[in-house]
Amino acid sequence: MIQRSSSLYRLVQSLRFGSSSQLGSYACYSSHATRLSPPCDGEDEYANMDWDNLGFGMTPTDYMYMVKCSKDGSFETGQLTSYGNLELSPSAGVLNYGQGLYEGTKAYRKEDGRLLLFRPDQNAIRMKMGADRMCMPCPSIDQFVDAVKQIAVANKRWVPPPGKGTLYIRPLLIGSGPILGLAPAPEYTFLVYASPVGNYFKEGLAPLNLYIEEEFHRASRGGAGGVKSITNYAPVLKAIARAKSRGFSDVLYLDSVNKKYIEEVSSCNIFLVKGNVISTPAANGTILQGVTRRSIIEIARDNGYQVEERAIQVDELKVADEVFCTGTAVGVAPVGNITYQGTRVEYKMRNGSVAEKLYAILEGIKTGVIEDKKGWITEI
């Protein structure tokens, strides 16, 4: 298996020869922040970072983007400002009722210094879907993508060298206005910040060992599990902490009704491989429709695999040839074993696995090594 992201870069390289206006009284910039213009073309030197040892942690960069929703429900022109804290009313909707959404995407640096974004329009579309579910106004797709572009360019010196990591970009939509009774907030703030990151899991690209959780559930029918609401994540922390204390990488959740169908891992989707068939749980309202998930499905079909989106019983894990997870943060992560009711199922790790092949193609497209024939890449 690929051991480091730099090794992946060498692998995908080889494929080219083969086949804000003023904020109001309830949410504003920090007192030391000033509005700024994007850096000049010459300001693209690297930040002082140990690029060989990046983890998935928060490293403050230079700039963030902010804009506030006007009273008529439309967002004004956003502004770049220096990265800093926010001021919120104690009764802000996001603090009291969890009215918030977030997205995650990445910027990649090519050898010639140009920056690439992977399908940011899909993140914008998903935020609009989530905003509708959470009774929130939302920036347009064009404004969302433009904000992501601005943050990537403004923080260019924080984009890791090719093969060393990525600039993780976090768009965030929150109910920033004050509200005491349970109701939508009277105003909203859209902001975007970024951080250079390496691998999401501490194991790097080593196989994951997952634990199937039976006591706690990530989502239920009729809830918000199918959108990227901030309320989906804190409830899984207890299950994750318990699993990690036992030596597991993460938790795989079952459906909350029958408790026999797999759904997703805490922060990523899951796939099973059996022969030429790749199966993944259907996104039926309790499962997040991941951008990486959708991309892997399309890539797999293009490469001759039969892909099924369906209900998958937990017992099917016992007979799968391999299992892998997908997500913006994790990319494509192979699973080495899964433990359920005291029984561990092991999966043989081998060169040329389906996960490795799909990962190489996906990362090749993302980094510009493989020609993008689908219009997925936005070049800055």
UniProtKB/TrEMBL annotation:
<comment type="similarity">
    <text>Belongs to the class-IV pyridoxal-phosphate-dependent aminotransferase family.</text>
</comment>
<keyword id="KW-0100">Branched-chain amino acid biosynthesis</keyword>
<dbReference type="GO" id="GO:0008652">
    <property type="term" value="P:amino acid biosynthetic process"/>
</dbReference>
<dbReference type="GO" id="GO:0005737">
    <property type="term" value="C:cytoplasm"/>
</dbReference>
<dbReference type="InterPro" id="IPR043131">
    <property type="entry name" value="BCAT-like_N"/>
</dbReference>
<feature type="modified residue" description="N6-(pyridoxal phosphate)lysine">
    <location>
        <position position="228"/>
    </location>
</feature>
<comment type="pathway">
    <text>Amino-acid biosynthesis; L-valine biosynthesis; L-valine from pyruvate: step 4/4.</text>
</comment>
<dbReference type="GO" id="GO:0052655">
    <property type="term" value="F:L-valine-2-oxoglutarate transaminase activity"/>
</dbReference>
<dbReference type="GO" id="GO:0009082">
    <property type="term" value="P:branched-chain amino acid biosynthetic process"/>
</dbReference>
<dbReference type="InterPro" id="IPR001544">
    <property type="entry name" value="Aminotrans_IV"/>
</dbReference>
<keyword id="KW-0028">Amino-acid biosynthesis</keyword>
<dbReference type="Pfam" id="PF01063">
    <property type="entry name" value="Aminotran_4"/>
</dbReference>
<keyword id="KW-0032">Aminotransferase</keyword>
<protein>
    <recommendedName>
        <fullName>Branched-chain-amino-acid aminotransferase</fullName>
        <ecNumber>2.6.1.42</ecNumber>
    </recommendedName>
</protein>
<keyword id="KW-0808">Transferase</keyword>
<keyword id="KW-0663">Pyridoxal phosphate</keyword>
<dbReference type="GO" id="GO:0052656">
    <property type="term" value="F:L-isoleucine-2-oxoglutarate transaminase activity"/>
</dbReference>
<dbReference type="InterPro" id="IPR005786">
    <property type="entry name" value="B_amino_transII"/>
</dbReference>
<dbReference type="InterPro" id="IPR033939">
    <property type="entry name" value="BCAT_family"/>
</dbReference>
<comment type="pathway">
    <text>Amino-acid biosynthesis; L-isoleucine biosynthesis; L-isoleucine from 2-oxobutanoate: step 4/4.</text>
</comment>
<dbReference type="InterPro" id="IPR036038">
    <property type="entry name" value="Aminotransferase-like"/>
</dbReference>
<dbReference type="InterPro" id="IPR018300">
    <property type="entry name" value="Aminotrans_IV_CS"/>
</dbReference>
<dbReference type="InterPro" id="IPR043132">
    <property type="entry name" value="BCAT-like_C"/>
</dbReference>
<dbReference type="GO" id="GO:0052654">
    <property type="term" value="F:L-leucine-2-oxoglutarate transaminase activity"/>
</dbReference>
